[in-house]
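Final paragraph of the annual report: two paired records, presented back to back.
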Amino acid sequence: MNPALLAMLAVVLAGGATALQAPTNARLAEAVASPVNAAFVSFAVGTVALGMLALMLQTRPDMAATRSLPWWVWIGGLYGSVFVVAAAWAVPRLGVAVTITLMVAGQLIISLILDHFGAMGVPKQPMNLMRVAGILMVIGGVVLVRRG
């Protein structure tokens, strides 16, 4: 299979998992008394799953290479925590579709900025009218989903 096509399929499936994760954690938040507690449980389960997968794949991190990394590479889990807590909190208030659509809009806005400046080591892709129009269309989609 074409590697680019495989990557696109994997990302679409991951996006679907994100849509499932939001109501799952929202329901869990009700039972454990807060979105923060739900995120904690979610990350604990994810940590166990990733640990088992790492053991199965027998991957070994290059600890010497990690010493030269910039500080911000260590806070990716923090972004995930914000995402999970926000989704668990927002789904009962906004619904899954509006929550996920707003999250996608936020992802696109930040992605456009990162691409434009080549921030965090990504290849530079200048902002242009077509890219901005695409994001504005997604934001328009948020409005349509919210009003629908």
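The closing record of the year follows.
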Amino acid sequence: MTNPSEATGRIARSVSRLPVFRAACGFLGGVLAITVIGLFGGVVGMPLLIAPFGASSVLLFAAPDSAFAQPRNLVWGHLIASTVGLVVFWLAGAGLWQMALAVGAAIALMQLTRTVHPPAGADPLVIMLGGGASGTFLLFPVLAGVLLLLLIALVFNWAVHGEPWPRRDIS
């Protein structure tokens, strides 16, 4: 028969490992995602990384069950916010009020379409501050990068957690 204090000790050790396991998953997922996207961009000769993908990785690998980390939010959030940023830039240029307008409009459109992905709120700023206002920006790096990020998250979260991700439909 097992000593109750030994059983309590085992439970306490396994519970204390949980945050370490989660942190390790977040670390490995983030390293893997950014490395693969960066290397793939080099192979195809197109930049596929933008700063908001780092923040997206936080949600995908540290909080994969969050409503904000769901695939439709990830993909549509980035596409909507980047489209808004490009349209505002093309119509009004880049300045403080244009950046503020683009971020606000991106937030509102993500809310209306139920595709809020907080890291995508930075996409209009990336476009206006980085001069990434070409017509191809929406395809490369945004769409190609976000689809690659989604594929990595699907495989990684399934492999680590042993069950399909996303585990629930957020409507």
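The chain has one domain: 4-161. This concludes the annual technical report; the extension proposal builds directly on these records.
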